[in-house]
Fold this protein.
Amino acid sequence: MLKYKKIRVGKNYIEAFSVSLQSKTFILLKGRKGYVMCGYINLKAAEKFKDAAVKITGVSTIEEALKAKVHSCTSCARKLGISKGQSIREALKKIY
């Protein structure tokens, strides 16, 4: 099952997707400058493609993702001011 929501971040909106897979749920929060993804993310690939990508873990819903903290991120995300342990809501403000 695919779920889609628009989430307000400050004055802007990001797109939120949730896809139920065989045993887990894939979560993606997408802004203009980058994205937040669940543990399915491959940071090496995101780094190779110069994406501003943020990894979160231990979430299975969009709501849980919005309460999570940054687990890790690419160098492009760090250039935007995103760091490990930062709240996802703060990271989303930087990737919008």
